[in-house]
Design a protein that fits this description.
InterPro entries: ARM-like, ARM-type_fold, CIK-Related_Protein, HEAT_type_2, Kinase-like_dom_sf, Prot_kinase_dom, Ser-Thr/Tyr_kinase_cat_dom
Radius of gyration: 47 Å
Number of helices: 32
Protein name: Protein kinase domain-containing protein
Strand content: 5-15%
GO molecular function: ATP binding; protein kinase activity
């Protein structure tokens, strides 16, 4: 028989090829002559239940009752009545015999008797779950009797099934009929198919077929008796075999016993209305029933009631049966959060319940709701998600984080609430490893650049810490563009001492990413300044960092000298020490997950503590590194750093051969910093020489016609002095020396960086015959000029060719000097 049904439903039979469902194994029990099968949808593979009823001919009495059940189940809808999906009736063959079969497809359910054995509950938990189930069946019966004026006729264990969420639902509507109270004198059967009901389930009036008495009774009289039979069967654990067994009340709970006796009253008119059983019975007043009822009408509750309820729910959930919590409460709670009826505290309860699920079920039942909640505009929901992100962050796939989660989380970077900005920043410790390089370099680093100049010092500190922790996820070009600028130019110059400490320690942890040139020219000079920092903790960390980087430099020196890389000795210890103390105080709110060895913090709390950006409690939580800190070794100096890639979508600009990155307005936000410029040795020497030059007027040397003027003698030396152009220019002598040393003007222009803005020297208008011996009183630069020649020149012609003796007019020369000089000449 089973083989025949399986072939028919799967499409290989002669009449049911188009049924969009597949049949599986049957359950051990079902109501009446029906067979209950497991099934799946051909479209999406979702589970269903398939009920089949077969007869030898289309006029079979069972088939007629089955058609009545199909019609009633299709038309009657209630939350506690089995949900109808599909039905059909086909003709087939079982060997030589012809068979007529009715199929009903419903939501996936399981027979109540089998489910109770599977749950195997006991004590208070059993009574609470039974109370909830009876409450649901009583509501269904009350709906049929009081609202629809229908009589089910056979309420018992076999007519009740259980859904995947452990809800009890009523089915088996083959006997279902209208309550005909208007025709009180009629003796015709009111229940057309009452012969399907077992005699042990029939009340006295139905057993005797007293239809007139039944019509005079309340509509619920027959089904109230059936509820009594159901109560007996579930608490005794036995199938009712005869009516006399109902008198055995030993297994019935004392709080339910009075109502049980009223349901089984011998007088139909005195039997308890199922609606009163729901409202008045003490047995239904328990935590499970009250909790589920509250959640079902959550939309009608105000915010105060919701907050109070969800704050108590974690403790209540601990006392309820675990399977009921996971299969019943968890789906209701997830649905309430998803559609906005639940308050933010419900998320904490959802995550606590979700932690009891296996990973695969957590990903299927809880994670989709959480991902949808990231799009919520409710700030309380967003805060709760960020506070508990460590509990579900590892379960999020990289694609979901990059495409669905991060775009919504990123809005918190610019939020007006400092507390939310801080939580958003901390969440990146979990999310950053799952981001693509495009999102990491193009979006995240731009947000971090703005947070590094945030008005809250705690946020600035945490930003530096986060950059140190996610450096391993950046590509080589991004690290060169970001790390040194972020740590030295901003963090080390921050006015907040813990921010400076974080910058130092971040440099030590990421030391393996810097080449020797960067360490010597950009890191050591900036760290050395902090050895005189007002804060003692900053000074201590600065000395530790100097020891580490100098050790790296020493190893590089030894390698270049001997050609053999020395072992990482003390420097390794220094770096490990730094690693153990870096970033420890900055992100303590993140709960450690997994084994301690798997989540060792990059650094532990040291001597500094920081106040929170929004409260008086501890500032910022311990950050944990996701990868072990790499110790700097000499192998990192054996390779030449490759040139960084050209400007790309990450917005950090170019950084070639370890040079300072050229950050434009679009370069991720680190464009307003002034990177440390590598000093040129020649310029430094000239600057020092210029600083040592005396300001006062030099004494006049003794007159010596055989020695050339000092100004001509120092011409070559002054060519390399970049400071000479901002001093008063030395005038050319009015005479020609005996042994002149002409200087190349082109060479001077190439070497003098300041030549374009210096005042030009005055031109001579006379050509001396002999070296001058007396100072020219008309020269306004005499006070600061080099000693004049000791001999007076013979005046030349105005053409300056030496053909005349008339002295040239000094007025022209004085005006040229006055016009270009920055000194005071009296004009």
């Amino acid at each position: 028989m089973f083989k025949f049904l399986k072939e028919v439903v799967s499409g290989s039979g002669s009449g049911l090829k188009d049924l969009p469902y597949n049949i599986s194994e049957p359950y051990a029990s079902a109501w009446g002559s029906w067979v209950h099968y497991r099934g799946t949808s051909k479209d999406d593979g979702s589970p269903v239940s398939i009920f089949s009823l077969s007869g030898s001919s289309s006029q079979d009495r069972h088939l007629a009752a089955g058609r009545n059940g199909v019609k009633r189940l299709r038309t009657v809808r209630h939350p506690n009545i089995l949900s109808f999906l599909h039905s059909t009736e086909v003709e087939g063959f079982d060997g030589p015999s012809q068979k007529h079969t009715i199929y009903i497809v419903t939501e996936p359910v399981m027979p109540l008797s089998e489910k109770l054995k599977e749950l195997n509950l006991g004590g208070t938990q059993r009574d609470e779950y039974y109370a909830w189930g009876l409450h649901q069946i009583a509501k269904a019966v009350s709906f049929l009797n009081n609202d629809c004026k229908l009589v089910h006729g056979n309420v018992c264990v076999s007519s009740v099934v259980v859904t995947q969420t452990l809800d009890w639902k009523l089915h088996a509507f083959d006997v279902l009929s209208e309550f005909d109270a208007n025709n009180e004198a009629a003796n015709s059967p009111m229940l057309q198919f009452e012969w399907l009901v077992g005699s042990q389930y029939k009340p006295m009036e139905l057993s005797k077929s007293e239809w007139a008495a039944i019509r005079k009774s309340p509509p619920w009289a027959i089904d109230a008796w059936g509820l009594g039979c159901l109560i007996y069967e579930i608490f005794s654990g036995l199938k009712l075999t005869k009516t006399e067994e109902l008198r055995n009340t030993a297994s019935i709970p004392k709080s339910l016993l009075p109502d049980y006796q009223r349901l089984l009253s011998s007088a139909p008119s005195r039997r308890m209305n199922p609606s009163k059983l729901i409202d008045n019975s003490e047995f239904f007043q328990n935590k499970l029933v009250e909790t589920i009822q509250f959640m079902e009408i959550l939309n009608l509750k105000d915010s105060v009631e919701k907050d109070s309820f969800f704050r108590k729910l974690p403790n209540i959930a601990e006392q309820l049966p675990r399977e009921i919590v996971l299969k019943k409460l968890l789906p209701v709670l997830a649905s309430s959060l998803e559609f906005g009826s639940a308050a933010a505290p419900a998320l904490t309860v959802l995550l606590k319940m979700g932690a009891w699920l296996p990973p695969d079920q957590f990903n299927a039942k809880v994670l989709p709701t959480i991902v949808k909640l990231f799009a919520s505009n409710d700030r309380a929901i967003r805060v709760s998600l960020l506070q508990h992100i460590d509990q579900f962050g590892d379960s999020l796939s990289s694609q979901i984080v990059d495409e669905q989660v991060f775009p919504h989380v990123a809005t918190g970077f610019a939020d007006t609430s400092a507390f939310l900005r801080e939580l958003t920043l901390k969440s990146m410790l979990i999310l950053a490893p799952k981001l693509s390089q495009r999102t990491l370099s193009g979006s995240l680093l731009k947000y971090l650049s703005k947070l590094q100049v945030d008005e809250e010092p705690a946020i600035r500190t945490n930003t530096t810490i986060l950059l140190g922790n996610i450096a391993s996820y950046m590509n080589e070009g991004t690290r060169k563009r970001v790390l040194i600028n972020a740590f030295t130019v901003r963090a080390l110059r921050d006015t907040f001492p813990p921010a400076r400490s974080a910058g130092i320690l971040a440099l030590t942890v990421t030391s393996s990413y810097y080449d020797m040139t960067e360490i010597a020219t950009r890191i050591l000079p900036n760290v050395a300044v902090l050895t005189i920092d007002p804060d003692s903790d900053v000074r201590t960390k600065a000395f530790q960092a100097l020891d580490q980087f100098l050790s790296i430099a020493r190893q590089n020196h030894e390698k270049l000298t001997t050609g053999v890389e020395s072992k990482v000795g003390d420097s390794t210890g220094v770096q490990a020490n730094a690693s153990s103390s870096l970033l420890g105080w900055a992100m303590s709110s993140l709960t450690q997950k997994g084994k301690a060895s798997d989540h060792a913090p990059i650094v532990n709390a040291n001597s500094s503590t920081v106040s929170s950006a929004t409260s008086n409690s501890s500032l910022v939580p311990d950050l944990q590194s996701t990868e072990p800190v790499r110790t700097a070794s000499m192998s990192s100096f054996e390779q030449i750093a490759p040139p960084s890639p050209t400007r790309s979508a990450d917005g950090w600009g170019d950084a070639e051969d370890g040079s300072v990155p050229d950050l434009g307005d679009e370069d991720g936000g680190w464009d307003d910093v002034d990177p440390f410029e590598e000093p040129k040795p020649t310029s430094l020497t000239n600057i020092q020489a210029a600083q040592k030059r005396p300001v006062s007027q030099p004494k006049q040397p003794a007159v010596n016609s055989s020695r050339p003027p000092p100004s001509m003698k120092s011409t070559i030396e002054d060519e390399d002095d970049p400071w000479g152009s901002v001093t008063a220019p030395v005038p050319k002598p009015a005479t020609k020396t005996l042994n002149p040393k002409p200087a190349s003007s082109s060479a001077r222009n190439e070497d003098d960086l300041w030549g374009s803005i210096a005042a030009p020297a005055p031109k001579s208008t006379v050509k001396p015959l002999k070296p001058a011996t007396v100072n020219d009183d008309s020269d306004p630069w005499a006070a600061i000029a080099a000693p004049p020649p000791t001999t007076k020149a013979k005046p030349l012609s105005s053409l300056g060719r030496g053909r005349g003796t008339k002295q040239s007019q000094p007025k022209l020369g004085a005006q040229r000097i006055d016009r270009t000089s920055s000194g005071s000449s009296g004009f």
